[in-house]
Amino acid sequence: MSIALNTIDGLGLGAISGTTVASLVKAYRESAGYSIEDLAVTCGLANSEISAIEDGNDADPAKLRRIATALQVPVTALLTTDS
């Protein structure tokens, strides 16, 4: 699955793999020492929404912005493209 995220903050990133976003969200969450529940509370999303993102089933740009803010990383950190 690939997700068109070129509308996020006008970054013009094109398509990015859902698995890339998923693994980056999980890696940043774990490095911050957050459980899924901690991140959900911090960014105001449900546990199931965080799980869906980390499973590569969702990459709603609005949710990614909220997650990036909660993790105190730029949204671009969650949107690097596959090599």
Describe the structure.
The protein has 83 residues and is mostly helical. Helix content is 49%, strand content 7%. The protein is built from four helices and two strands; from the N terminus they run E-E-H-H-H-H. The chain has a two-stranded antiparallel sheet with strand order 1-2. Helix 2 packs across helix 3 and helix 2 packs across helix 4 (61-71). The longest helix has 14 residues, at 18-31. It is globular, with a radius of gyration of 11 Å. The two termini are 16 Å apart. Mean pLDDT is 83; it is low at 1-7.
Features:
83 residues, mainly alpha, two-stranded antiparallel sheet, 49% helix, globular, disordered N terminus, Lambda_DNA-bd_dom_sf, Transcriptional regulator with XRE-family HTH domain, Cro/C1-type_HTH
Radius of gyration: 11 Å
Molecular shape: globular
- What is the total tally of β strands? 2
Largest sheet: 2 strands, antiparallel
**SSE class:** mainly alpha
- What separation lies between the terminal Cα atoms? 16 Å
* Overall average residue pLDDT: 83
Number of separate helices: 4
Order of helices and strands: EEHHHH
Low-confidence segments = 1-7
* Strand residue content: 5-15%
Q: In which range does the helix fraction lie?
A: 40-55%
Domain HTH cro/C1-type: 25-78
Organism: Rhizobium herbae
Protein name: Transcriptional regulator with XRE-family HTH domain
Pfam families: HTH_3
